[in-house]
User: Fold this.
Amino acid sequence: MDIIARLFGLGIIIVVADRVLSEAGQKNIAFFVTLAGVVIGLAMVVPKIYELFTTVQNTFNVH
Assistant:
């Protein structure tokens, strides 16, 4: 549940930063901020997905 709250908070921060930068005419920087947010979000989620697959593999003894 903690990961969901972190992703939600990250999403809000990224959306606000994107809107502010876009309104200020800095669309290139807004794109890179959004891209960085996606990368950070993936870095948070990928270990959890790996953990899920490991748990499933151990549960069914698939080698």
Notes: Residues 2-60 form one domain. The chain has a mean pLDDT of 93. The CA atoms of residues 38 and 55 lie 26 Å apart.
